[in-house]
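Hi R.,

Here are the chain sequences for the assembly we discussed:
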Amino acid sequence: MNDQVLSVILTIITASTPLLLAAIGELVVERSGVLNLGVEGMMAVGAVSGFGAALMTGNPYAGVLAALVAGALLSLLFGFLTLTMVANQVATGLALTLLGLGVSGLMGEAFVGQPGVHLERLSIPGLSGIPFIGPILFGQDFLVYLSLVIVAAVSYMLFRTRTGLVIRAVGDSHQSAHALGYSVVGVRYLCVMFGGACSGLAGGYLSLAYTPQWVENMTAGRGWIALALVVFSSWLPWRIVVGAYLFGAITVMGFSLQAYGIGIPSQLLSALPYVVTVMVLVLISRNRALMRANTPACLGQPFVPDR
Amino acid sequence: MDYLLEALHVTKVFGSLKANDDVTLKVKPGEIHAFLGENGAGKSTLVKMIYGALQPTSGEFRWMGKTVTIPSPAAARKLGVGMVFQHFSLFEALTVAENIALAMPGAFDMRKLSGRIARVSRDYGLPLEPSAVVADLSVGERQRIEIVRCLLQEPKLLIMDEPTAVLTPQEADQLFITLQRLASEGCAVIYISHRLEEVKRLCHNVTILRHGKVVANVDPGRETAASLARLMVGGDIHVVKSAREDRRGAARLKLDRLRLPADGPFAVELRNISLEVRAGEVVAIAGVAGNGQQELFDAVSGERSLAQAAMLVIDGKPMGHDGVNTRRNAGAAFVPEERLGHGAVPAFTLSQNVVLTRHSSDAALVRSGLVSSGGAAGVSERIVRDFDVRKGKPDPEARSLSGGNLQKFVVGRELDRRPGVLVINQPTWGVDAGASATIRQAIVDLARQGSAVLVISQDLDEIFEIADRIAVISRGELSEAYPASGLTSEKIGLLMAGAHEIRQTSGKETAHAARA
Amino acid sequence: MRLVLEKRAGASGRMAILSPLIAIALTLITGGIIFALRGLNPFSALYVFFAEPLTTSWSVEQLIVKATPLAMIGAGLAVSYMANVWNIGAEGQLTAGAILGSAVPVFFPEFQSPLTLVLMLALGIAGGMAWASIPAFLKNRFGANEILTSLMLVYLIQLMLDWLVRGPWRDPKGYNFPKTIAFTDWQLLPQFQVLPPSIGPIYINLGAIFAVAAAVALAFMMGRTLKGYELRVQGIAPRAGRFSGFPREKTVWFCFLLSGGLAGLAGICEVMSTVGQLQPGISPGYGFTAIIVAFLGRLNPIGALVAAFALAISYLGGESAQVALGISDKTARVFQGILLFYILACDSLILHRLKFIGRRPRLAEAEA
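And here is the predicted structure of the full complex:
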């Protein structure tokens, strides 16, 4: 029984990490006032790039790096359109998702059915061996720890440093930030690329740690769930951890119930995360005062400096 | 080194428009120097160049005798130039201290900075709480943030862009004391305004701009308000002819204990607003921006629905539950503050914009669900002719018109309907003198023909020019409406500050207001 | 050197027409480069991909088959996006329409009359509307972001379809394949011959006629009626829309029901023609590609009709390129994505002009 609980907890952590990575990246993007709906596409390209690089080099860390770079590059395309060309952010984000899913399908054709390279879990002598707690606290792959470190770093950066203050300022009023001499577009480019790198990493996690293989559309809407998580968090970094682990738990619960052969259609259990996403969005959005107080005021609005 | 700042033959060209044409002027240390001019005279362009936000097309600036280029606001701040914009560059979701930190170079130490803010704001009589969130502050307090932000950088030159436009007369007095103290310490102040009295009162030197050119540099002490006005406008100002007769008829617009909950964390709640506007009169609502004017307009126009129908009565009919079109069909017309994006669709042509507010009241514009573009064009031409709207093309997009011309169109679109009730928010905000005069005259004429007109305005000069009775809005509450002839700007200022602040002010001030 | 945009005084009419054409040209150039990088002759590859689908009557027929759902959904989405209502769950509404319409032959396989056809189409529209009404309701009642909710509902309805055709609706004589019984006679759309055999017999089904009718009707609505005026105002100036007295909630309902209904119609038409029964994968992502169609058509319903053909060519071209050149049919989706990017980039040139400028002037304090 203990073993079963342990394995469920471990699976929850692996299921939650990609959501956490993608959502914390998007949180920074949205804090700077940009809405990038292309998370799903960047994750897909990150997943296929990471898988491919790891397969070719035999090194999962090369895969992680490739996933990160691929996500950042794709986000640069989004940045060029929405920041330099001032295209509609919603439409461009959708375009990024469509392009990302298409490109990943094309790139991944050669990888279908190939066994992947697994990102191994750490093993710290002495610590990882502690029953129950050891594997949970000290036996994860490094990206699990990295994801939490990123959340802590983002939280510190946003609320304790000048960089974070500038990001929040740009998201709150790009006109004022511009008037004070800050490069609104420059700050936003950096944030968008950070978000892209995180999304790429999230995709890489899927194809290197969660299920080390390549399947087309393997992101399965996780990018969209990550976007919902940002709303759920009301743009506060630590709440992303709560949300991501909640969703991870719900996903895993579905699988576990299937394994027990309970007489519920498997499709209903697979649908659980999507249903919960909608419900969470409704619950959060109901509190309009909360939503309005925290939403970056310039979210999704194009910025063209006057002359 | 006689002069702090010199502008020599500065010209700035935007496309085909010369915003500044061969401007030469000199500012001494410790001098309060006014830039006086109408909207569009080029004052803002000039100071934006001094502040490094724009680059001159030709000409040069000298700073303490040395030729400089000022490529960015950061460079200007480095020289010692501070600027308080008319539209504040503040961040609503951030605290006072964070807002100030964003403009301060150097180490990032919020605690130390908060201490400095508290000290400077106390020294200069500009009280501020460093941890307060800007969204919760009044306009006057927000301006203090901007000023303290500049003062912390120990500027040699402080630029103020129309600072009193958003202040109560009492707040303005306090500001003048601060500025005079700064000047006595050797800091030069460039003071942009089009208010003649305060320029005469405060400034040592006046440079007057018209159509981008310097037309005069005079000592305000030796001029009269009328002579300054002539220099500014280049002729005599049109005076609104309003035969004020007490021939008021029945109440056509009635607000009865109107309440409206706040629309969000930063919005104003309207409380127990009662007012009657009678046939034949213009009633004005004065007040500092952000005290519920927008909310009141939304409530009266029907953009936001009211809890009880009886809260709003038009010509005897309770209409609080009705939408904006039903109210229009009952004879009311509305002109919002924001021309582009609220009163008119920027990307639509003028004739398309006619349909915006008249689709339900003009049978000729919409026939069985179809928009008649010919009918709309006819109405549009009539408005353009009657209100002298200047435009480049036969039917241009709204956004291509100048502020004054678009405002004439937006006002004209409603007046052309001969409404029984007109509600108009900031009728001449950002509009040149010529268009302002046309609009104000048209408003008064409408009232004299038997309509009831409600004007919401922050411009006291405008209010005194056209209003028969004046009420003041403060923190979502409306004062009684007093006859304009019996009011002074001091009394209005006290009302603007709100009833509970009056109780706090010293007896001396109250006595002064009562005497006035 | 930096690239900056400068606002134009007004919209450039020339760019408004040129922008989609430039976008298509840039996509072709990019495509040619991609082919060349893969060692193919770019010109012949582009010919196979984009021109061959127009050369035989069979392929033109296929083109119309593929363009039909794209145009139908794209026209509805164009109207919706114009009004700033972001329904991106058309794929789900398509599936919902297909499911509800298919209930007729599944439950009453013997019911064969013209009424069957009408009933199935009506239920298809109703299914799409019903599924679209969920995000509309959540948006209006709770302010929930319609982009996320409408998309989540795509996954939900697809899982539901999967469950239906593997469970209760499965054809008992279907060797355990996940599909319903095959539809027959009045459960299928009638076909019409539109060109005589001398030119090459081309058949189209009723769906194509619906698509054209929908695009024309919606274009008329947007261009001439007060309803269209209302939707356009709300899209470009929401505040002015409220001032004009158009209730936003009604617009959200209208747009979702309209675009959802059309997606549902497209779904049931697919099932009643090309597919012939209900099964998973009834659409190769038409609901998502239609987003591109709406934008390529510059959010104009007639534009969407034209754009649907451009996108249909890429689907067919992908198939024929796979056969003739041995490149993946997934190339088509990449081209579609690239095309959308170019459209969005070119569209911003309607309101802005591009300018290259030199470095910003340096801080130069002459120590005179």
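Residues 84 and 146 of chain B are 6 Å apart (CA to CA). The longest helix of chain B spans residues 169-184.

Let me know if anything looks off.

Best,
T.
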